[in-house]
TrEMBL record:
<dbReference type="InterPro" id="IPR007111">
    <property type="entry name" value="NACHT_NTPase"/>
</dbReference>
<keyword id="KW-0677">Repeat</keyword>
<feature type="domain" description="NACHT">
    <location>
        <begin position="159"/>
        <end position="302"/>
    </location>
</feature>
<dbReference type="Pfam" id="PF24883">
    <property type="entry name" value="NPHP3_N"/>
</dbReference>
<dbReference type="InterPro" id="IPR027417">
    <property type="entry name" value="P-loop_NTPase"/>
</dbReference>
<protein>
    <recommendedName>
        <fullName>NACHT domain-containing protein</fullName>
    </recommendedName>
</protein>
<dbReference type="InterPro" id="IPR056884">
    <property type="entry name" value="NPHP3-like_N"/>
</dbReference>
């Protein structure tokens, strides 16, 4: 017997950092472990001839490739090639009948590629925000002027201004005017309507600066050409490269210049830790580099974690504060001016009101103005409701508003809370106008808007997912123009529903306030799961045309099976017409691809509405190659866990001897669990090796206890875990078609554990392992056996095997 101890172990100098143990060693999200495997390849393809994804001849599919084609450059004798590529800086080169591929970022595609790493539509003049919130003429003049003075006169360390105020006081409108009148060099307007990714803030700002300033653009081009991973690095790393280096170290610009950067709605950024990290980097920049020409204006609600940051005395020297209060005289006067002007506009726009000398009455106006206080969100919602196009009766709508005020907060609710409480009283009134038969569809649309996944869809696609016709969709939202921005029918293929103000989704999420749903998140998740599965199941997975090696590259989940016309069975409730550029064929393909991606992402997050055999089956049958976001480890866990009995019943689990598997094809993370009966002192043949640096977690089952761990193995990994094993069954290099090669060493890599598994393969060639195989021919393997030394302890390995076993034996 070849034992582990008889193998020669060279000393290893690999340094790994031990992470804190997760709740379950096997249920760590797959994306945590793919980076090293994915350094050189974004796809995981099991023992197939080529990793190259094939584009189908049908042009419908061409837009779904995420890889930019390489740019071929031809030169003629005597021609000089300029660039940063393979011949950068060379001249007087002569080539004949030669073609060279330059993979460097060129001037033609640099900005286009850079744009893909930004928050699309976040700039102050973006069409995605049109029309943007603006201050009503004659309002907020003092605040705007103070911001302008700060920009032009700030000096030293105090180059950040914090504009803070409660929801709905008009912070975004103020900063919009400031951005237009200065104008801003770069701006990021966060929003719950799809602009929330805080990890892209600095790339977004850098991109906007690069569009305006040639020296900065050249600096970025050189840096990113040198290190393309810069666009995916951490926020501190990006901040150093995008701001500290060019503005401080390189002195690209004079210290006397001013560069205005506006970040609005910081509290709407999707992670509170990211919010504080952004503030920390900006404030440190201001204090450490007082000569910097960059001026920052950051606006947010007074959320506790943001307020506590600014309350820190170490930050005090970096900023000045502008607080927009709800109950201030200035705010109330501005809101009253807005209400008078807008109500006057409504009066003159309706023939039945023009002859009225006093509409609304002074008493009615006072009641509305008192309810609004200094809260523009309330005032603007009231105006949109009274002027709602579906009703066409401002008098009746005004009465409804007054009724809501009467049923709203009583006199004991005072100060800054009163206007928000009045808004809470108005929102139910607006929802109550939706007829019961339309509310079913209205609810679906509201839930979809509340789900972050819907951000990727336009209104037409959203309605096709929900099986709503155009008429049903517009009927469902016709009563909600006061709270929702609804796309015009001819723009429905390019725009989606948006909230006018974040206070409305906040209201819906809070059951105590809205009575809308006990769990908006669960209800929205369940709705998306039903829609995605319905669409996916309308596309056959076992047709002969789907078994080819062709595939559609989409997102980072992998290549999907496909062939011309394979999505034709997807039913469209809202088909396209001459108004839209997207064809029905393209729309069906988009619906299918997005639905499969949704199943991947939600299954990977262990959403309870996706944890079923239907979703599992879709993931196992729809791909020709797996991408970095495919939940491969969660699939493995469920295949041998919750879904085991069903898979066995269907005949999908096979048993094969170890000799039919290729050890060198084992790839990715290997899960080990070793357990012994409680109360029995078992002597394992190989207990935990203290030199192993990867995670170890204690396991306590009903009658068993032990430990489990994860280690990483590459098909031709570092350390040569097969050396010096000389066995013809185990070549030292993986098959040439294996796409699981990596030149890096992951922090879960372990030479000791890899060799222990290799020895077990050699010593036990006839031992049976359980195998499940997906449509990419990736094998998910479970190997269990009793410890040969104590005949008590149980060992269990779960691993991935690139390719099918040589022989399958049915269970």
């Amino acid at each position: 017997m070849l034992s582990l101890s008889s193998l020669y172990f060279a000393s290893c100098s690999i340094h790994v950092t031990q992470r804190s143990p997760p709740q379950s060693a096997e249920n760590i999200p797959s994306w945590c472990f793919f980076p090293m495997l994915m350094q050189n390849s974004q796809l995981l393809r099991a023992a197939q001839p080529s990793i190259t994804g094939h584009q189908l001849e049908d042009s419908t599919y061409h837009n779904y490739s995420v890889h930019s084609s390489q740019r071929s450059l031809r030169t003629s004798p005597g021609q000089t090639y300029y660039g940063n590529g393979m011949f950068g800086g060379s001249h007087n080169l002569a080539f004949s009948n030669s073609t060279f591929i330059d993979n460097s970022i060129t001037s033609d595609n640099f900005m286009k590629e850079f744009l893909q790493h930004t928050i699309i539509g976040a700039e102050f003049d973006s069409s995605d925000r049109h029309p943007p919130p603006r201050c009503h003429p004659g309002t907020r003049l003092a605040i705007i002027e103070r911001c302008k003075v700060f920009i032009t006169q700030c000096d030293g360390k105090e180059k950040m201004r914090w504009v803070v105020g409660a929801a709905g006081v008009g912070k975004s409108a103020v900063l919009q005017i400031v951005a237009e009148e200065i104008p801003a060099d770069a701006s990021v307007f966060f929003s719950v309507n799809g602009r929330q990714d805080g990890t892209k803030v600095f790339t977004t700002i850098a991109y906007q600066l690069a569009t305006k300033y040639e020296p900065y653009r050249q600096f970025l081009r050189n840096e990113i050409s040198r290190d393309p991973s810069l666009l995916r690095k951490s926020l501190p790393a990006q901040f150093r490269k995008f701001f500290v280096d060019p503005f401080i170290h390189q002195h690209l610009f004079s210290d006397s210049q001013r560069f205005l950067v506006i970040i609005d709605g910081l509290d709407e950024c999707d992670n509170s830790l990211t919010q504080r990290e952004l503030l920390r980097l900006i404030s440190n920049f201001c204090t450490q580099h007082p000569t910097s020409p960059v001026v920052w204006i950051v606006a947010s609600r007074p959320e506790p974690h943001i307020t506590s940051f600014f309350d820190d005395e170490r930050v005090a020297s970096a900023y000045t504060k502008e607080e927009i209060e709800i109950v201030s005289d200035e705010a109330c006067e501005d809101v009253q001016r807005y209400l008078r002007d807008e109500l006057d506009e409504i009066k003159h726009a309706h023939p039945a009101l023009r002859h009225k000398r006093d509409w609304p009455s002074e008493l009615e106006f006072t009641r509305i103005a008192t309810a609004a206080g200094g809260l523009f969100a309330y005032a603007s919602t009231v105006i949109r409701y009274i002027d709602g196009p579906h009703y066409g009766d401002p008098v009746a709508q005004l009465c409804h508003v007054l009724e809501a005020i009467d049923t709203g907060p009583k006199d004991h609710v005072l100060g800054r809370d009163r206007p928000m409480a009045q808004l809470d009283a108005l929102y139910p009134r607006i929802l109550s106008n939706v007829p019961a038969d339309a509310m079913v569809n209205t609810r679906k649309l509201l839930l979809t808007c509340l789900d972050s996944y819907s951000e990727r869809f336009d209104f037409c696609s959203t309605c096709n997912r929900l099986q709503l016709t155009e008429a049903a969709a517009y009927g469902a939202v016709s009563y909600l123009h006061a709270v929702l921005k609804v796309p015009e029918p001819n723009k429905a293929d390019n725009e989606n529903l948006e909230y006018f103000h974040k206070s409305f989704p906040d209201f819906l999420f809070d059951f105590i306030r809205s009575k809308f749903s006990h769990s908006v998140g669960d209800e929205a998740d369940q709705l998306q799961a039903r829609c995605s599965l319905r669409i996916v199941e309308q596309v056959a997975y076992d047709l002969a045309c789907m078994d080819s090696d062709e595939g559609i590259e989409y997102h980072r989940c992998g290549y999907l099976k496909g062939s011309p016309g394979f999505c034709d069975n997807i039913a469209l409730s809202w088909p396209g017409d001459e108004r839209y550029q997207v064809t029905d064929k393209q729309l069906r393909l988009e619906l299918y691809c997005d639905s499969v991606v949704n199943l991947c992402l939600r299954f990977g997050r262990d959403s309870k509405f996706y944890r079923n055999m239907s979703c599992f089956h879709a993931l196992m049958t729809r791909f020709t190659a797996l991408g970095s976001l495919f939940p491969i480890y969660r699939v493995r866990t469920f295949a041998f866990g919750e879904f085991r009995s069903k898979l066995a019943e269907l005949g999908n689990l096979k048993q094969v001897p170890l000799r039919t598997l290729d050890y060198t094809a084992i790839c990715g993370l290997v899960h080990i669990r070793v357990t012994s009966p409680i109360g029995i002192d078992a002597k394992h043949s190989d207990s935990w090796n203290p030199t192993c640096k990867h995670i170890k977690k204690d396991v306590y089952l009903q009658q068993w206890q032990g430990w489990e761990t994860l280690f990483e193995r590459f098909p031709s990994g570092p350390g040569d875990d097969m050396t010096p094993i000389n066995d013809s069954r185990f070549p030292t290099k993986a098959d040439k078609h294996s796409d699981w090669e990596s030149s890096g060493v992951g922090e879960f890599y372990c030479l000791y554990c890899s060799r222990r598994l290799a020895c077990h393969f050699i010593d036990n060639p006839d031992q049976l392992a359980t195998v499940f195989i997906d449509s990419t021919e990736m094998s998910y393997v479970e190997l269990t056996f009793v410890d040969p030394d104590d005949d008590i302890s149980k060992w269990r390995y779960r691993f991935l095997h690139s390719g099918r076993p040589h022989v399958l034996i049915s269970t």
